[in-house]
Amino acid sequence: MNETFVCAQTTEVPREVAISATSYAMRCSVLLPPVGNKAPTPIELNVYGKSAERFSRTKSNAHIYIHGTRLRFDLDSRTYSLHGGNIATVDESFPIFNTVILSGRCVKDIAVDDSRAFKTTQSGLMICNQTLSVYTGRNQADLFNFYAINTPEDKLNNAELLVNFTKKGVGLTMKGKLVTDSWIDQETKEKKALTKIQLVSMTLAPRPSESTGSIQSQTTVASGTGVASLWGGKSAEDDSDAWTKTAGGGLPDLPGKYGQAPDLSDEPF
User: Fold this and answer.
1) What angle do CA 202, 203, 204 make, to 5 degrees?
2) How many CB atoms are closer than 10 A to CB 153?
3) CB within 8 Å of 113: residues ≥ 6 apart
4) 43 contacts 98 by C-beta, under 8 angstroms
5) H helices within the chain, ranges in order?
């Protein structure tokens, strides 16, 4: 699973880019609102299909909500990007969302004697870093570094849970948020920034069960009961991204300028 739900502000007018000989996408640099005392997060947004046609009319400095986009990470440039999803223009009264949901496998054991992987501070903070491999198809995967931090007073000690229960190869579903640290380099005096994923909650994959018994239904639904139509009979739109269709979510797009999203599983990262 790779789903992201965020609010953002466009920093430019969306521009058209070719993704194949016959298909195009709309690309735009956007800025995610800061989390707490962090800095805003700059990130590149790529939109496909019918969503791209609507997004092409978006102006610079517009407030948008991005629903169900896919997060990617380029190991070479160390940058994140967003791909696909549904885009809606909103105003400043709209709540700010910043949610990343990833499912994959941990790629390492936590070395408690390595300060880059785990450390505690004099104030009692516990910080742990882990890496998640998220499958993208065709024997390729994205690697996402994320961290957990907690104080002794926290009811949910995510950092401690990572240390005690995540090992190399362990399956993990995590919910986090994109945050950006900003600072001035003491030697070069240049302003630098680093974007990362902060863990909010996680669920470990269940251990294989030796039981082979069938699952029995526990609920009986009465038939013949009419249900009123919601939303005036309108139906949800298919955002026409390639990953939804790979999972069987709808028919392919008809030929058009903004075709379905490219198969990113062949990207070199």
Assistant:
1) 125
2) 7
3) none
4) no
5) 49-55, 158-165, 242-246
Residue 248 has pLDDT above 50, yes or no: no
Using DSSP, state whether 26 is helix, strand or coil: strand
pLDDT at residue 215 in the model? 62
**Is 176 strand, coil or helix?**
strand
Confidence of residue 243 (pLDDT cuts 50, 70, 90): very low
User: What's residue 155's pLDDT?
Assistant: 83
How far from the centroid of its chain's Cα atoms is residue 38's Cα? 18
Residues composing the chain: 269
CA dist 133 → 1, 71, 116, 197 (Å): 11, 13, 19, 14
Q: Which domains does the chain have, with CATH numbers?
A: 2-101+237-262 (2.40.50.140), 104-204 (2.40.50.140)
User: Which backbone phi and psi does 122 adopt, to 5 degrees?
Assistant: -65, -25
Higher pLDDT: 186 or 61? It is 61
More confident residue, 205 or 27: 27
- Cβ count near 240 (within 10 Å): 24
Q: Rounded CA gap, 195 and 182, in Å?
A: 9
Residues 6 or more apart whose CB falls under 8 angstroms from that of 139 comprise: none
Nearest to 62 by CA among 87, 39, 91: 91
pLDDT at 75: 87
Choose among 151, 193, 158, 157: nearest CA to 175: 158
CA pair distance 201, 208, nearest whole angstrom: 22
Please state, as a whole number, how many other Cβ atoms lie within 10 Å of the Cβ of residue 185: 9
Task: Count the helices and strands in the chain (H runs, E runs).
Answer: 3, 13
